[in-house]
Amino acid sequence: MKNVLRLLSTAALVLMTSAHAAERLPTIPPDKYDAEQAKAAQDFQAARKVPVFGPFEPLMHSPEVMSQTRAMGDYLRYHSAIGNTLSELVILVTAREWSQDYEWYVHHPIALKAGIKPSIADAIADGRRPTGMSEDEEIVYDFTTELIRNKRVADGTYARAEKRFGNKGIVDMTGICGYYTLLAMEMNVAQYPVPKKAAKLARFPEP
């Protein structure tokens, strides 16, 4: 009887935990926005031409953070010094390293359209170093991977990036990595859902 009660208690705890997790930073309906949130949503739509979506939904619980984040993304996503194709490579590496399914779901097709080879994207998804990368892609892949995994960049890796992209390119590339790391962290904390049709990234073993 004690074992049965223990199992029932465990099951109840799991259900309670799941229900609580599903309510993490839930999306706020527009008709429930307060004045600050409504202004942030209005500014978002003016800048992006679409309503608040994706990672910006959990951020709406702190509308000033959402607006500042969106403003940084307006530059890093579309106008960085390394160009859109290499930016998308940084985003894929970042999404993979954080196992961020929504980020991958959105940017995988964008990266392919921008010119990243499917075989390169597949290798990143598997956690493998891609083969067949261009020299620019190798520089970006090595820089981003080292930065995320080692929390720093080796002198040789930095020198290659500096020679190719200059100081502005290094700042922008680091900024893209940091920006999409921020979005990945926010969505992982919120347990932000992906569409049912979205393929989920395999989880890396815990350290």
UniProtKB/TrEMBL annotation:
* PANTHER family registered for this protein in UniProt: 4-CARBOXYMUCONOLACTONE DECARBOXYLASE FAMILY PROTEIN (AFU_ORTHOLOGUE AFUA_6G11590)
Q: What is this protein called?
A: 4-carboxy muconolactone decarboxylase
The leader peptide range reads 1-21
The UniProt keyword set, sorted, is: Signal
Per the UniProt record, the source organism is Ralstonia holmesii
Q: Does the keyword Signal belong to this entry?
A: yes
Q: Does the keyword Signal apply?
A: yes
